[in-house]
Amino acid sequence: MSPYLIEELFEQLKRVLNKPLMISDANGRPYAGANDLQKLKELVLSEQPSRDKSSIAIERHPELRAVPLYSEDRLLGLVIAEVSVEDIQTTQIITSMSGLIIQQFLSLHKPRPDAVDLLLTRLVYRPQTLDEGELEQQMAALGYRLDVQRCAVLIELTGFWDNYLQTVGQPLGEKQNLIAAKKRDISQSLISFFSKNQDNVVGYIGNDRFLILKDLSSTDFNRFSDLFITHYAEVTNILRNIYIKDVTAGLGSPSFSAADLPASVEESLQLTKW
Asked: Distance between alpha carbon 26 and the CA centroid of its chain, in Å?
């Protein structure tokens, strides 16, 4: 979770409950500055968190309960508080308040996609709403050539969402900069290794995923795919760092017109680690 979200959660819950609290990540590691329970040296849950458990007992600390924090079906963290199993009202207050704060925060600081991101996201998730003529018009409006053979390349950077967009920087402006910077890194990795083909369309399509419509105007697809797979580590090395250690990719077949692109994109969704 973002440090700003953790700080807001901690302050708001403390104000309402007026009792010692701790907020941890999904693995039970406490967040700095959000921990009143210094006596709790080790957090061992009696069972795994799930949607159907409003609170969970903590081993060797019968006076404490852990309340899971979810965003949709994703476990974000835990609130640990001095609350008994019978005190359902306090548990419900923690759950409902936390859910509201998290929802408002994520909605307010949700990244705003640019025109390329919107087009490629639609191409991935709602291709049936995008016919060949509209795709050609939008590509042309964005300044990309229409007479270029392309193939879809899907890149998944494990940890991008969690370690970049949800944890670092001033949430909104910083997120936009981080997405733009990573798109530049992806573009640079392709240009530096396949320098003859530079009319690449690069977009962020959500979570850890980026889609590239790779320019194949002067490259045979079979040669490109062979080189990409053989030199995968070198091509993707620029995308790795201490936060992103795992990079997977999917390649779609070559497309000779806008009508072929959805099929190439669909094939690229089958990710592989080379």
From this structure: 16
Q: How far from the centroid of its chain's Cα atoms is residue 225's Cα? A: 26
Q: Give the C-alpha separation, 219 to 174, whole Å.
A: 36
Band of pLDDT at residue 220, cut at 50, 70 and 90: confident
Length of the chain: 274
In tens, the pLDDT along 36-91 reads: 998 887 889 999 999 889 999 999 999 999 999 998 788 989 999 999 989 999 99
Phi, psi of 218 (to 5 degrees): -130, 25
Give whole-number Cα distances, 216 to 82, 140, 213, in Å: 61, 17, 9
Cα–Cα dist 239/233, whole Å? 10
In the chain, which ranges are continuous DSSP H helix? 3-17, 88-108, 115-125, 132-141, 171-193, 221-230, 232-236, 261-268
**What's the pLDDT tens digit per position in 96-131?**
999 999 888 877 766 667 899 999 999 999 999 998
Burial pattern 173-204, b for ≥16 Cβ within 10 A else e, equals ebbeebbeebbebbbebbeeebeebeebbbbb
